[in-house]
Amino acid sequence: MFALFGLDVDRATACRQALRTAALIASNVAYLNHRFATEVRDPIQYGIGIHAGEAIVGDIGFRGRTVFTALGDSVNVAARLQDMTKNLNCLLIMSEEVCKIAGLSADVLTRREIQIRGHDEPMTVRVVEDPTVLASLTEPEPADPLSEDGEDNRSCS
To answer: Architecture of domain 11-137 in CATH?
Structure first.
């Protein structure tokens, strides 16, 4: 499966949306695996790769058989990170760039240097064994109770 974030929001918001989506996927797959444990022999397995960067996006195809997609190095890197989850025995790998753009604390997730096929330099990534933890790491910042005009906008209920 391929998901694209950031078409209509800034990069930081897009990265946080991608991380929250990964947490939701992990939570839902865990639920399904638990719910159908007695009915299905093998649990659902998955891996997620997240990277940020520029891409060419649009409809690609021929004569009414088009699909909206993205092309570019950032897309290829995300796919390669996803593939590496198998070898690194984890469920999610994100690039250090995503971690920084999303504003995650640098010491929260395991840091690794990996070689990406097609790249000369190793890439710093964050390896996540349980993506559900990303939900708490990407909570939106609480709004400043004082507006730009200095008015107190706090409310009580």
So the answer is: 2-Layer Sandwich (3.30)
Query: Backbone phi, then psi, for 128, in 5-degree steps?
Result: -125, 115
Q: How many CA atoms lie within 13 A of 137 on its CB side?
A: 27
Backbone angles phi, psi at 56, to 5 degrees: -90, 120
Sorted by sequence, the CB contacts under 8 Å of residue 26 that are 6+ apart come out as: 91, 92, 130, 131, 132
pLDDT: which is higher, 6 or 144: 6
**145 token code pair:** 């109770």
Give the global pTM: 0.82
Give the β-pairing of 48-50 and 123-128: unpaired
- pLDDT tens-digit profile of 123-142? 999 999 999 988 888 765 55
In order, the DSSP letters of 110-140 are EEEEEPPTT-SS-EEEEEES-GGGHHHHTPP
Indicate the domain borders of the chain.
11-137
Taking the CA of residue 26 as centre, how many other CA atoms within 13 Å lie in the half-sphere pointing to its CB? 20
Q: How far is CA 149 from the centre of its chain?
A: 36
